[in-house]
């Protein structure tokens, strides 16, 4: 039995794909452990995974509260973020856990692209094969800036962590950053072709889903609004969202006279007073309700993009941030959605796009060729991880 240790960081869109991958690997006979934020323990154990928390629930909320600084300008913001949250100590802790889990010849490390540097460090020190998993195309598009960031702003602290493993300083950060034995991209080929393509070393295995791990019932108020033809409004599960997103989206729904389910983990991001037939929910089982919505008005996260395509639901994106804007451009090129940058978030521009999506009689035909290929690809990802150990 192979031991697979998964390491990831971020919000639901970063963690749940790893839960899903871990579940598939466990079903294929492997022992799987997930290292990530404390609030994901229940969902990981429900999927049959072993679990080690890299923080506490309170630390995780603090982490989320500080992520908006990453939307600013300047490479030094990443160093400030790492220092503020104690992420260098967290990397060192992850390396110690990975060392403890290592069984020679029977272990694979799987880490989230860009942030799970512990998997590359520990893999190098122990001779363990490593897979780096990207959850959005922008992670490949941003590799050169990321290499520059690590080399110019973080090398001192990262090399200190390496020294605890008996490793010397990184000499060539570009080569180190691409040194994993396997590079996986968790999105469909058609989404890749709609923009800057992933590098040749990347193996695209299709869309991941982890939201089906939630078995929560659909609240009665959500059922009522869905019956009235509601749209879903969501900015994801974190705080890395422009402060104008929810006010602009709610105002547009009110102006268009459309019922809405506003899904946001943090209530304080949403306007205190909501219009009639607009209700807030901390979470909803999207795998059960997305296909019943008339449209999705969202922030542009790739998980929401692909889930909505799989559900055959029109999309309007209010995209702030490079990755979300890139997702919006890809979707628009395919004729599967529209998007607006933050400077154009006015009811005068959002409402026409929302109404056009609701009235788009040809959308079902356009989205049909993509719906099936938007289905989960985690079995292919699990197979690739297995091949890594055998190679």
Write the layout of secondary structure elements.
Layout: E1 3-7, H1 12-27, E2 31-36, H2 41-46, E3 50-53, H3 57-66, H4 76-85, H5 87-101, E4 107-112, H6 117-126, E5 130-134, H7 138-141, H8 143-164, H9 173-177, E6 182-185, H10 189-193, E7 202-204, H11 220-227, E8 231-234, H12 245-256, E9 260-263, E10 278-281, H13 286-289, E11 296-298, H14 302-311, E12 315-319, H15 322-333, E13 337-341, H16 347-358, H17 363-371, H18 378-390
Parallel strand pairs: 1-2, 1-4, 2-3, 4-5, 5-6, 6-7, 8-9, 8-11, 9-10, 11-12, 12-13
Helix pairs in contact: 1-18, 5-6, 5-8, 12-16
Low-confidence stretches: none
| Second CATH tier, the architecture of the largest domain | 3-Layer(aba) Sandwich
Helical segment count: 18
The CATH top-level class label of the largest domain:
Alpha Beta
Sequence of strands across the biggest β-sheet: 3-2-1-4-5-6-7
- Major sheet size, sense and barrel closure: 7 strands, parallel
Task: Give the full name of the CATH homologous superfamily of the largest domain.
Answer: Glycogen Phosphorylase B
The CATH topology name of the largest domain reads: Rossmann fold
Overall structural domain count: 2
